[in-house]
Amino acid sequence: MRILLVDDDEHILKILSAKLESRGHSVDRRVSGLGVLATLAGHGQTPKPDLVVLDNYMPDISGRALLELAARTPSAADVPVIFHSADNRMADAVMDSGHKHVCFVLKGRPSTVIEVVEYFDLHKKFVGA
Fold first, then answer.
1. Taking the complete model, does pTM exceed 0.85, yes or no?
2. pLDDT for 70-128, tens place per residue?
3. CATH number, residue 58
4. Which residue of 14, 19, 41, 53 has the lowest C-beta tally within 10 Å?
5. Which of 53, 72, 68, 62 is nearest to 32 (CA)?
6. What is the rounded distance in angstroms from the CA atom of residue 23 to the CA atom of residue 21?
7. CA-based nearest residue to 13, from 35, 29, 2
8. What is the tally of structural domains in the chain?
9. Checking DSSP bridges between strand 102-106 and strand 81-85, what pairing results, if any?
10. DSSP assignment, residue 47?
């Protein structure tokens, strides 16, 4: 599965990348939200991802803003998003973003992100999406 990791914390990107790649996933890492919407819509330099792991607090554009933009962009709205934030107060806002394929995971437990990625991967195999 092609996974796009978006987080301004390089340490988190390294940990998640290593864990996901060891499970056979292809990972693209971004330290900024700039250009992510184009990638989700299939207009970026890299192939459209099957799944995105998205942080909220980034210097240029917030993950929440990206999520809401993706929800309103038909060619991006079908990409599932794991919203990965240290702020558990974001959970309700994420679920109310209008994006149909999103879940919230609290930062600090990479294994939880991996479990959710594996769930999406299994679902994709069964549904054939």
1. yes
2. 999 888 889 999 999 989 888 998 888 888 889 999 988 888 899 999 888 887 777 66
3. 3.40.50.2300
4. 14
5. 62
6. 5
7. 29
8. 1
9. parallel
10. P
